[in-house]
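Structure representation.

___
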Amino acid sequence: MNEPLSRYDVTVTVACDDGSRPDLAAFAVAADQAAWRRSASIISAQLANGIISVVTVTAPDRYAAVAVARAVVSDALNRHAPSSSRSADDCAQHHAEPAA
């Protein structure tokens, strides 16, 4: 029950298949707020076909870290573009690694 916490860097990529690219500055503000609410940090970059984010999370295991990272990105996307028909979880892919 009392597992030690580790720091994980979780990479989350969100594809923008429909050609609409969100404003990175607005996304960054929403992502920073979402990360702060979950005691995490986030760095994002915009690519030609989407956004790639690295969320740093302190968690007991990789699965918990991935859940927090996906929630951060999902909240940022939903807060930034609430009218989107696709959910953020439908578009997001993730890869978690323990932080160095």
